[in-house]
Amino acid sequence: MRDIYHLAVSVLVWLGDKTDEINRLELFISNLVNEGYVTKGDKWGREVTGIETKARDRGERKQPLAKFIRNESERLLLKGAFKGGMGLLRGMQIGLDVEYNSLSDHLNDQRVREDEYLQRMEEIKSWSPNERQLKLVQGEDFQAMATLLDKVLFSDTQYFDRMWTLQELCVANRGLVEVLEVNLEDLLLVFYYLQRTFNIRHLSFEKITTLFEINSKFNNGQRLPLRVLLALSAGRNSENPRDRIYGLHGLMKDEQNPLLKPDYMKPVAEVYANVARHIISTGESLDVICGHQLLGRLSELPSWVPDFRHFGLEASSLVNANGENIIYRASESEKHALPEHPFHVTREWQTLIVTGIFLGNVSVLSDILVPGQDLQTETFALRERLWSAKFIQSQEWAPEEAQTVGNVSDLVAIYAEFYQNSNRATFWARNPDKLGRLRAMIGNANDQRDGTLGLNYKYFLTLLCGRIAKETRCSEEELSEHFARSCIPDQEGIETLERLCKALDAGTQGRRLIMSERKQMGAATEQTQENDMIYVLMGCSVSVILRKTARPNEFQFIGECYWHGFMDGEALAMRDGDKVTAHEFNLV
């Protein structure tokens, strides 16, 4: 690891055609000495300081300084002075200015042709270093290198976390990271290579990818909608919460209107409410109010207004924050009804008028997993135990129905044991008895599919929130196929079971089982309480949970909801058949 940290503060490798001043080399060497990574008396200290002397003697007349430093750096690398060398960073300097650990951007105002602008994303994702570069770093710890880059670029600086970075970098033709003196796309080359080849992943990597994608589209004449930009910039910091919105104005595709007009005198709640109203009116959809973070919200926000500081951070939400690839159709193609002047500022900005269909009250509610407890198994299995325990204790069901749910719970427990194992590829070969039990359970589940009203499938689909992946729905027929495939211990079967386990985790994360007095079931946010009301709202892709206030015809929005059997327009079919009635009310 000592060699890796030598790399972290020092190594100059392959400066390419860049030209450096001699004082930069002096600063580089002095940083090495000042930080205690080398001393002028030790072996490598003598080698490093020797570069400075040789450079002064030769001067640029005999050999360009950049080329000389590159050659000397490679010589040191080959001799073993700095073993960690980042030859992976194709033709660029790696080395940190310890005294000036800051990032800045270099804006080139000259227009460039589109085909000269940036390397295409697919080229960057598929790039690999040449054999010579790989040979120089053969046997090195790439995980440590990736962690190091992540630390220097993200953990030790706030630049990429800033909201205004989007404006500064995303409109530029070229972006230069001054700490490393490399271009953003060059950093992406390395990160993608490490990710693809060594399965090394860092969450911060997405921050550069996001900047690159927005930059690429912007400079190619493509502007993104405000809602998409809000999702892409999730988690960025700004001293003023209003800048979470105003910092995107120069990038967005949306046309300016009174709802979006910058005004730092308005309360943050009003600014956010106006933005939510703008997005709702633009798409005639209420989906933007679903899926947002419920904990840690600004207390002054109306219940239906997302806290845009955290918008887009709910990974397991039913509705994608960017509004794309929505897989549910609870209100079919029915739009949210707009007022006469939808983009005008209103004095009643705290209130949103909606139309909805009442589906039932929450009568049974599962307990919540206690945070911080010692988890001995996968969390989706622990959450499911709480769900099934409440189901069985509720006395709403016949004994055979409760037994059916208990069987599903046993099935999930085996899935969790498989998923928790570090060597899933050989799990069934090492545990043939458990594979036999799994096959027996799947066989029983298929036998009971048409009996007990298919309760086992309804319950399992509720655990999944009706999907096998974030953007892929799952029907009873498809679930039966997944069950059967998960019993076969080959690669496809193992991958199928892994997808099921991931879907179980996403479906139960942050949710609790809810049931109505009519024995209908669903999954709702942990903030749901007994007697809350389940609704389908016109213009909303998913069912929702509402809570009645003391005022007539007024509700608080609690959150999105998976309500089994009502996610594909069934409520509207009932309305059209005069079985239920839609009515208008206020969200506050």
Note down, in words, how this protein is organized.
The chain is an alpha+beta fold. β11, α22 (about 570-575) and β12 (about 580-585) form a beta-alpha-beta unit. The protein has helices spanning about 1-10, 20-35, 45-60, 65-80, 115, 120-125, 130-135, 140-155, 165-170, 185-200, 205-220, 225-230, 245, 270-285, 380-395, 400-420, 425-430, 430-445, 455-465, 475-485, 490-510, 570-575, and strands at about 175, 180-185, 350-360, 365, 465-470, 470-475, 510-515, 520-525, 535, 545-550, 555-565, 580-585. A 5-stranded mixed beta barrel has the order 3-9-10-11-12. A two-stranded antiparallel sheet has the order 1-2. Strands 5-6 form a two-stranded antiparallel ribbon. α15 runs antiparallel to α16 (about 400-420). The chain is flat. The protein is about 45% helix and about 10% strand. It starts with a helix and ends with a strand. Among the domains are: about 1-85, no CATH class; about 115-220, no CATH class; about 380-510, no CATH class.
